């Protein structure tokens, strides 16, 4: 096999090996497309990738700076503002050059100490869970991807406020045994779970209104259902949307255990992406990593694409919008994220938790992972937090959220960064996917893939 | 097992039919051999072995279990204590294997009890552990619960009064655990009612007694509010009220019950159990202290009964009858 493309013909070129693109690649290849799948990185997964600690820190130096313009690295009390790309040799020394304030030598020591266990970390810039009953899990089972992946159940769901953490009851047993719910609240919650577990017919208005009026939920109970179960974040959920989400959540409980979500070991997004790429390759897909898309020329049969390793003639292109060059980063769609290493597994050593922090109208989603999912070495914990808005406006909020959960544990290393959504204009023959959103599970990834696939399969689409 | 669907069987294939035929023939031959041995009063080790093979195929042959016990007692080894211990321990292991095939077999449980009672040194603590495991597989199996009560009784025989109280307390905690896992576990509530009087007697003074009662009522309320349609908690509630000796206490508790149910009914308008229990509580109050129930409340009872006729049509006859009796007794409130 030559390592040079000589104007070879492919039905579809797929650019970017994120989870969405990989699902699409597998589906098209299985349907008979000759697929060429490329990625500019030397690893699979794109925005869903998973890294060792050094890999993650390398990513901070080599990331797409249009998409992630600002990134603050905190080690101890040292702050390092990584605001421009840098070479990746001598990683620690390189990171130190971004020093802005705080104790430099202690930070260097701490970092070296953490890196001694480098391979025991599996860090994802964009972590997500799998709902136990939903489209993504069905796809994984259906395609046999389940054979390649290992999961742990998400043990607890917490609602967090400045006053502290409260467990969200997830079953009749939880509700019965709860000491923080009043009797009346228990009744209301049970009624809600049984009613919405069976699906309401055409509810109207907003979900928040429905909870207040039909189920008479108030205060903390109302917030628990709205934010910790239906997971309303930025915009107000319609009653139908909220009911669908609660329905999915309630019906996920009990399928594989007492939890509603699964958390993959070794990074869910990365494992999903790699598994689907593997399947695509098995049915004939061609894979090239470290590949640059240099030029796209439309012609009567589709496009002539120039890559580093040669040219190819493709009938259509599926592309991660992050690859579209003259991209302008939309400022109205910004997500701020935090990744924090704790020196003490405060919520349990072998535990995985999903949390929601409510504070003065803001909602922060959090994940707490440990060695249970191979995310950190034993004795430590990893916390992810994210919310909508720029880092400038949300960093204190994210720090507060992590702080309330971490309690006595120290945050030895943390990274705060903002991700701007990149969009591309609609073009004939090029199908843009979308980038990972703020939802906590992969259902939206599945939906995004299906959206592109249905557009490709439309009868009037240019072949 | 509770809450699990039966598997529907499919028509057997020709091969399967042939296999089944051969199995049946083998079984009948073995059965014939064993019955023959029994008729001829053969009590040898070989005969014992044949009964084992037969019982392995079919655990429900109580005659064969009887015969097996007879053989055991006729063997020479039976007279020697150590050898008997060994034989019966092997027997218990054998029973453990086959009980998993059919947890609900009366004969196997009886045989196990016989073996334990014949053992020179029975291991009752070990039996307790075994039952706990069984109940974790099927929490409502009454064989399991009955056996547990039997084992507990045996355990208490070998200890002094303090030891007995300890056993009761431990069993009480076990029911708490089971109820926390599933508040609809009828068997656990029932066992709790058997143990609660003993636990009450352990209280050193009146406040402690009151405390124990309060905990029980809290647990019941939790169960009622979690699932008002499940009758377990309501039955236990009635039983708890029934064991009150002090009339004044009982009246207060009945009033508490009425208030609680009224609150619950605000959330659950047409739920059968709260409704009928409210009527029951008011009737009990009136019986205990004639005149303590107001005429408004009496009217409320009759209203509830007529709503119940629509909510629970299976028992419409009962509600009609109760309405008639109430109207007569309470005179002209309709």
From TrEMBL, chain A:
Which regions span the lipid bilayer?
none
InterPro entries on file: FAD/NAD-bd_sf, GDP_dissociation_inhibitor
Species of origin: Coemansia spiralis
Q: What's a GO biological-process term for it?
A: vesicle-mediated transport
Give the family, as the similarity comment puts it: Belongs to the Rab GDI family.
Molecular function, one GO term: GDP-dissociation inhibitor activity
The superkingdom listed in its UniProt entry is Eukaryota
SUPFAM superfamilies on file: FAD/NAD(P)-binding domain
- PANTHER family per UniProt: CHM, RAB ESCORT PROTEIN 1 (PTHR11787:SF4), RAB GDP-DISSOCIATION INHIBITOR (PTHR11787)
Per the record, GO CC terms? cytosol; nucleus; Rab-protein geranylgeranyltransferase complex
Question: Which Gene3D superfamilies does the protein's record reference?
Answer: FAD/NAD(P)-binding domain, Guanine Nucleotide Dissociation Inhibitor, domain 1, Guanine Nucleotide Dissociation Inhibitor, domain 2
Q: Spell out the protein name for this chain.
A: Rab GDP dissociation inhibitor
From TrEMBL, chain B:
Stretches the record annotates as Disordered: 1-20
Keyword Transferase appears in the UniProt entry: yes
What this protein is reported to do is described as: Catalyzes the transfer of a geranyl-geranyl moiety from geranyl-geranyl pyrophosphate to cysteines occuring in specific C-terminal amino acid sequences.
Catalysed reaction(s) here are: geranylgeranyl diphosphate + L-cysteinyl-[protein] = S-geranylgeranyl-L-cysteinyl-[protein] + diphosphate
Q: Name one GO molecular function term.
A: Rab geranylgeranyltransferase activity
This protein is called what? Geranylgeranyl transferase type-2 subunit alpha
Q: Which family does it belong to?
A: Belongs to the protein prenyltransferase subunit alpha family.
Pfam families, alphabetically?
PPTA (PF01239)
Which GO BP terms apply? prenylation
The cross-references to SUPFAM superfamilies, in alphabetical order and at most eight, read: Protein prenylyltransferase
**Source organism of the structure:** Coemansia spiralis
Per the record's keyword annotation, is Transferase included, yes or no?
A: yes
Q: What's in the GO CC field?
A: Rab-protein geranylgeranyltransferase complex
What keywords tag this UniProt record?
Answer: Prenyltransferase, Repeat, Transferase
State its Enzyme Commission number(s): 2.5.1.60
């Amino acid at each position: 096999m030559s390592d040079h493309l000589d104007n070879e013909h492919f039905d579809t070129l797929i650019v970017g090996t994120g989870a969405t693109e990989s699902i699409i690649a597998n589906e098209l290849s299985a349907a008979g497309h000759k697929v060429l799948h490329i990625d500019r990185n030397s690893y699979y997964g794109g925005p869903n990738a998973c890294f060792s600690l050094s890999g993650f820190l390398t990513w901070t130096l080599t990331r797409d700076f249009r998409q992630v313009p600002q990134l603050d690295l905190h080690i101890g009390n040292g702050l390092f503002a990584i605001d421009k790309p840098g070479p990746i040799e001598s990683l620690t020394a390189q990171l130190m050059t971004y020093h802005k304030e705080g104790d430099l030598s202690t930070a260097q020591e701490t970092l070296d100490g953490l890196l001694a266990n480098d391979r025991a970390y599996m860090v994802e810039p964009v972590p997500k869970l799998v709902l136990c009953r939903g489209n993504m899990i069905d796809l994984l089972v259906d395609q046999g991807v389940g054979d390649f992946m290992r999961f742990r159940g998400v043990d607890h769901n917490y609602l967090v406020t400045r006053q502290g953490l409260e467990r969200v009851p997830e079953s009749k047993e939880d509700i019965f045994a709860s000491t923080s719910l009043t009797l009346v609240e228990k009744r209301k919650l049970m009624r809600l779970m049984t009613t919405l577990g069976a699906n309401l017919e055409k509810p109207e208005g907003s979900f928040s209104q429905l909870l207040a009026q039909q189920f008479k939920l108030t205060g903390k109970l109302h917030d628990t259902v709205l934010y910790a179960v239906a997971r309303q974040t930025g915009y107000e959920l319609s009653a139908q949307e909220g009911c669908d989400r609660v329905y999915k959540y309630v019906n996920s409980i009990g399928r594989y255990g007492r939890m509603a979500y699964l958390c993959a070991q070794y990074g869910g997004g990365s494992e999903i992406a790699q598994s689907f790429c593997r399947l695509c390759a098995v049915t004939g897909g061609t894979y090239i990593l470290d590949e640059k898309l240099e030029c796209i020329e439309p012609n009567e049969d589709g496009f002539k694409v120039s890559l580093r390793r040669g040219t190819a003639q493709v009938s259509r292109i599926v592309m991660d919008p992050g690859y579209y060059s003259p991209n302008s980063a939309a400022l109205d769609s910004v997500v701020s994220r935090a990744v924090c290493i704790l020196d003490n597994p405060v919520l349990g050593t072998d535990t995985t938790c999903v949390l929601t922090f409510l504070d003065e109208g803001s909602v922060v989603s959090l994940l707490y992972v440990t060695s249970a999912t191979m995310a950190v070495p034993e004795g430590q914990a990893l916390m992810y937090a994210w919310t909508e808005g720029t880092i400038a406006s949300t960093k204190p909020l994210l720090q507060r959220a992590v702080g309330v959960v971490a309690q006595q544990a120290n945050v030895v290393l943390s990274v705060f960064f903002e991700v701007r959504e990149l969009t591309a204009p609609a073009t004939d023959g090029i199908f843009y996917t979308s980038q990972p959103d703020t939802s906590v599970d992969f259902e939206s990834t599945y939906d995004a893939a299906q959206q592109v696939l249905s557009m490709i399969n439309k009868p009037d689409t240019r072949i | 097992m509770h809450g699990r669907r039966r598997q529907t069987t499919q028509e057997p294939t020709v091969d399967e039919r042939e296999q089944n035929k051969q199995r049946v023939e083998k079984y009948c031959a073995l059965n014939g051999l064993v019955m023959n041995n029994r008729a001829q009063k053969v009590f040898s080790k070989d005969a014992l072995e044949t009964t084992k093979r037969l019982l392995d195929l079919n655990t429900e042959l109580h005659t064969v279990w009887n015969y097996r016990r007879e053989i055991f007692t006729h063997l020479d080894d039976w007279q020697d204590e150590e050898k008997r211990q060994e034989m019966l321990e092997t027997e218990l292991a054998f029973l453990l294997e086959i009980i998993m095939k059919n947890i609900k077999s009366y004969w196997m449980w009886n045989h196990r009890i016989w073996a334990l009672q014949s053992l020179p040194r029975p291991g009752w603590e070990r039996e307790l552990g075994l039952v706990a495991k069984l109940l974790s597989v099927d929490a409502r199996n009454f064989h399991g619960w009955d056996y547990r009560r039997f084992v507990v009784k045996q355990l208490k025989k070998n200890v002094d009064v303090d030891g007995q109280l300890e056993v009761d307390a431990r069993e009480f905690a076990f029911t708490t655990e089971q109820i926390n896992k599933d508040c609809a576990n009828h068997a656990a509530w029932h066992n709790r009612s058997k143990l609660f009087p003993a636990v009450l007697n352990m209280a050193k003074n009146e406040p402690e007694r009151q405390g124990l009662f309060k905990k029980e009522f809290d647990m019941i309320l939790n169960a009622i509010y979690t699932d008002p349609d499940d009758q377990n908690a309501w039955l236990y509630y009635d039983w708890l009220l029934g064991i009150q000796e002090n009339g004044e206490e009982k009246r207060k508790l009945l009033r508490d019950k009425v208030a609680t149910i009224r609150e619950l009914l605000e959330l659950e308008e047409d739920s059968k159990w709260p409704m009928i229990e409210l009527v029951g509580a008011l009737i009990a109050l009136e019986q205990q202290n004639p005149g303590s129930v107001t005429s408004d409340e009496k009217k409320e009872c009759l209203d509830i009964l007529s709503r119940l006729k629509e909510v629970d049509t299976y028992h419409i006859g009962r509600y009609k009858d109760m309405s008639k009796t109430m109207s007569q007794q309470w005179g002209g409130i309709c």
